[in-house]
Amino acid sequence: MMLDQSINTLDFAGSYSSYFDIVRANTPALLDEAYRLRYQVYCVENPFENAAEHIDGCEIDADDDRSIHTLLVHRRTGAVAGTVRVILPTNDPSRRPLPIHRILASQKRSYSSRLPQHETAEISRFAISKEFRRRSGEERYADVAAPGLASDMMNERRMIPYITFGLIRGVLEICHEYHIAYVGAVMEPALIRILGRFGLDFWALGDLVEHHGTRQACVACLNDMLERNRDGSTLLWHYAGKDLLAAA
């Protein structure tokens, strides 16, 4: 994906925030929005989960009770553009490990010995609304446009391909609030590449696995990621990194 080189790095944060809002899903109504979008993406459009097990149109699993969820809302329409969750570590990770830990255990890989368990969380259920997608092959994520919802205003159209930034910022804010140093994930290689283009670099843990398709367990050190983006003065740094360090 080619990023728009005409985007002014210093003005990006304000421009993006004028079109998209990050909302913590901390009420039953907002959680319902997250679960319904997940159902649409993970049960209907891409049947990774069994729709018959979610007859109310909400995709919920056993890790949601220890997760913090965020929504990305399109300000002009009020439409929910995306959602993601951060699964927090428990007081006793050995009794209730993160999903990534269970996957790596099947490979006889020692996840817990490499990362501090009480400072490691996991991101998952990364979903973008169908109305905000564009490109086949990466259509479940971002590198997106919204032909049906895109504004006639050129500035809004230019912000649409960066929609993932809002969800990334939501993840970073949650991790900052809960003192998370490392974040793991089990993702499609395509999503890992997309996030890497935006400055969120993950390194692989173990081999590729079959888990709703080919997936890679991976992890990111948040401090290292912020430092790389600061040194590169990236869009992600100006949009999210500086504010997080200022709040530290």
Give the structure's gist in a few sentences:
35% of the residues lie in helices and 21% in strands. It has 248 residues and is of the alpha+beta class. Strands 1-2-3-4-5-7-6 form a seven-stranded mixed sheet, with helices on both faces.
CATH topology (fold) name: Aminopeptidase
Whole-number total of structural domains: 1
Walk across the major sheet and give the strand order. Answer: 1-2-3-4-5-7-6
Strand content: 15-25%
- Rg calc: 17 Å
Note poorly predicted spans: 1-6, 141-153
The residue-averaged pLDDT reads 81
Query: Class in CATH?
Result: Alpha Beta
* Number of helical segments with 4 or more residues: 8
Main sheet specs: 7 strands, mixed
Element pattern in H and E: HEHEEHEHHEHEEHH
Structural class: alpha+beta
Coarse shape: globular
How much helical structure, as a percent, in the residues? 25-40%
- Secondary structure tally: strands: 7
Q: So, CATH architecture? A: 3-Layer(aba) Sandwich
Oligomer: single chain
Report how far apart the termini are: 33 Å
**Would you identify the CATH H-level superfamily?**
Gcn5-related N-acetyltransferase (GNAT)
Task: Give your account of this protein's structure.
The chain has 248 residues and is α+β, with helices and mostly antiparallel strands. The protein has one domain (9-246): Gcn5-related N-acetyltransferase (GNAT) (Aminopeptidase). It is built from eight helices and seven strands, in the order H-E-H-E-E-H-E-H-H-E-H-E-E-H-H. It has a seven-stranded mixed beta sheet with strand order 1-2-3-4-5-7-6, sandwiched between helices. Strand 6 (203-210) and strand 7 (214-221) form a beta hairpin. Helix 5 packs parallel to helix 8 and helix 7 (222-232) crosses helix 8 (235-246). The two termini are 33 Å apart.
